Amino acid sequence: MTERRLEGQVALVTGGGSGIGEAVARRLAADGAAVVVADIATESANAVARSLGDRALAVCADSGSEPDMQRAVALAVERFGALHIGVNAAGFGISAEVLDMDVERWNDVMRVTLGGVFVSCKAEARQMVRQGGGGVVINIASTNALQPAEGLSAYCTAKAGVAMFTRVAALELAQHRVRVVGVGPGLTATPATQRFLESPVASAAYLANIPAGRPAKAEEIASMVAYLASSEAGYITGDTFYVDGGLLTRNYPTLAERRPSGYEGADFLKTVEGEIPSR
Ligand SMILES: NC(=O)c1ccc[n+]([C@@H]2O[C@H](COP(=O)([O-])OP(=O)(O)OC[C@H]3O[C@@H](n4cnc5c(N)ncnc54)[C@H](O)[C@@H]3O)[C@@H](O)[C@H]2O)c1
What we know:
Helix content is about 45%, strand content about 15%. It is of the alpha/beta class. The protein is globular and about 55 Å long.
């Protein structure tokens, strides 16, 4: 019985305007939660919230900004009375090899993909502790928390950090009955991956390494999040759960396997795989 199992709960989803965060926002709402859709992409967040009706609210918030996330949590409480579930899905990678990586681009990834999880978790958990009734924070990691990938050093390092941060935060927050868990998606079809899923060479290289033979749907990641958010997962904290179609049983494709024809070295990475989102 999963229907409306989050009735009466209030959730905040960072990165809720697109992809996995959007699917999570929609699933939590379908399960009965009121949802705050937080994103730097205001239009996307508005569109998602609007489509969910009056039990949803869009907030323009940078997950790496403490004032933004404090404001997002305050708005959740003002509008819906409390906060019980935080899902931290905002994140991105950039593609560059270590020898060519600009420090600024490395720092961009660390500030949002790792730092944003800390900043968001802090703001969400402080509210849960203030309320005194417990809660759950779910951090979106990646199979790249465990699996190294050439050209993705900043992303892999940030995601490994998310998995470890999840453990430490769970340890500290257990006394307040706040659970902290991670979900590590494998390759998932979202706007972020659309470009290289449409590239025949890159797509074939990725899919050859996924026993399930296809990328995940964002809804399949959201169903794990919805389970972990529910009281059925009440004894689960600290761990990161991988939803990957078996990807972690194989190796990540090498640069040579992913390189489309017409490119040399790692030149294709920025054009085919990497981009930094902005407001
Ligand atoms: N798609 C995949 O294959 C995949 C696999 C593993 C993990 N993930 C992780 O899942 C999460 C979502 O990825 P996606 O594929 O859905 O990407 P996406 O680009 O479709 O959505 C990401 C959303 O986050 C928002 N965002 C970016 N920076 C932000 C910031 N500073 N503050 C607030 N919002 C911000 C973007 O505007 C966008 O709406 C990311 O953390 C990503 O690393 C994705």
